[in-house]
Amino acid sequence: MKPKKLKTDIVSVRFLPREKEKLAQQAAQQNITLSGLVRLNALAQSNNSRIKFVPEVNRKLYFELGKIAEKLQDKEANKDSLNSLYLLLNEVRKELMGIKQPPTQETNK
């Protein structure tokens, strides 16, 4: 069994009531405590990375757009314009999820 790490140090931070409410809503959406949210974001910032929350609507839309993209790949007519549309659709899907990828030659056509 792993020994439990005790959190013994306290850092006080003051927020406006509306800021605290916004943080509490974000914590609830991510199913973590308010302290956990602040801790994760503060530590992520110090590591030059950012923990990104992807809203549920974006996740659902990502998968629905994926179904459309699959259907576009099945079409035979006007292959070039359909392929261009397919690539654009996949770029939108990645943007919805916060996925950053370097541009490829195919996406720069």
What keywords describe this structure?
109 residues, 4 helices, 0% strand
Question: Could you characterize what this model shows?
Answer:
The chain is mostly helical and 109 residues long. The protein has helices at residues 17-29, 34-46, 56-74, 79-97. Helix 1 (17-29) packs across helix 2 (34-46). The termini are far apart.
Can you give the mean pLDDT? 77
Amount of helix: 55-70%
User: Structural class, from helix and strand content?
Assistant: mainly alpha
Largest sheet: none
Overall body shape: elongated
The ordered string of helix (H) and strand (E) elements is HHHH
Catalogue the unreliable spans. none
Q: How far apart are the termini?
A: 55 Å
H/I helix tally? 4
Approximately how much beta-strand content do the residues carry? under 5%
Radius of gyration: 21 Å
Strands, total number: 0
Protein name: Putative plasmid conjugation system NikA protein
Pfam families: NikA-like
InterPro entries: NikA-like
Show the helix and strand layout.
Layout: H1 17-29, H2 34-46, H3 56-74, H4 79-97
Helix pairs in contact: 1-2, 3-4
InterPro entries: NikA-like
Organism: Gloeothece verrucosa (strain PCC 7822) (Cyanothece sp. (strain PCC 7822))
Pfam families: NikA-like
